[in-house]
Design a protein that fits this description.
2 copies of one chain form a homodimer. Chain A is an all-alpha fold and about 150 residues long. Helices cover about 70% and strands about 5% of the residues of chain A. Chain A has helices at about 15-20, 25-35, 55-70, 75-95, 100-150, and strands spanning about 15, 50. Chain A binds a DNA duplex (30 and 30 nucleotides) through helix 2.
DNA sequence: TGCTATTCTGACGTTTACGTAAGAAAGCAA
DNA sequence: TTGCTTTCTTACGTAAACGTCAGAATAGCA
């Protein structure tokens, strides 16, 4: 977990705290690590407790958000977030280089990753909009009938 | 199934056809009937083949649509569609009565059922919109950085 | 009426996404 | 160091949503 470096100043969080902060359970977090949705917590020997940063909490929150909002399996979500992980990596890379050509290449990749997510979200959004429109239509018809009766 | 009366002129569909038309499988359709998501096909003796109408196909389509779009369990979906079923019933009732008071009562119930569904859909829509907005924001930032480099 | 394709009803199998329990180990506090 | 809480790993359990298979029955057709 935490592909980015852990800030030394913030107290490391334990799995129970992360679970509470994100409204899940330790089991779920371990499970997500198990299936590769979360990177294994770094610098941690076998049997030692996992420790997390606030950034990790955000990461978990985003996973849960996407899980609940898009109708994807955790497997599909993995693929989407692989891109996410790559994105974080790219951001790091971006900070390290001054070479314009490099920066340009990295930015373009970032752009594409985000585009992919946007496509997915917009697709869902469109479908939901259609549904809402149909319901509103029905609603209007009923309202019209009611109005007639109230004359 | 088919709470409304089956039009005599249309050839009854068999479960395999319905499955194909809706992009599912016979098993799924039987399962939905089993858990009460679909009303048991009417006028059908034990062991006889189920037969469906085009209206039933639409019903199945809507179930699948809601299943895929909203993140509900089939159980929750049942409850939502129970209202749906009631709505169909109300529509039938509506056609049968001329009494304005009765019609008004029925219309108000219809209105409420639709409102409930709309609330649900709009909730999802809002969340998805937030997500899309955030992604677009990131996208803009990346684009801005890219523009800087192209000077 | 016979043939063949579907469908029927169980019943058991499977995958996903965790829950739960057990025994050992780690972390912290006094 | 002792004691208590939390976490660790391993492993089995479970609910939802179907898949799959078996053997019998049905529906449409020649």
């Amino acid at each position: 977990m935490s592909a980015t470096t852990t800030p030394a100043h913030e107290r490391p969080l334990r799995i129970g705290e992360v679970a509470e902060l994100t409204g899940t359970t330790p089991r779920t977090i371990r499970y997500y690590e198990e299936i590769g949705l979360l990177d294994p917590a770094p610098e941690r020997a076998q049997g030692k407790h996992r420790c997390y940063t606030k950034a990790d909490v955000e990461r978990v929150r985003e996973i849960i958000r996407l899980r609940d909002l898009l109708g994807l399996s955790l497997d599909q979500l993995s693929q989407l977030l692989e891109a996410e992980s790559a994105r974080a990596h790219l951001r790091d890379e971006l900070k390290q280089t001054e070479d314009p050509a490099e920066r340009k290449r990295i930015l373009k990749q970032l752009h594409e990753h985000i585009s992919n997510q946007l496509d997915l979200v917009r697709g869902r959004l469109a479908e939901l909009n259609d549904l809402a429109a149909e319901l509103e239509d029905k609603q209007r018809r009923v309202t019209a009938l009611l109005a007639e009766l109230s004359d």
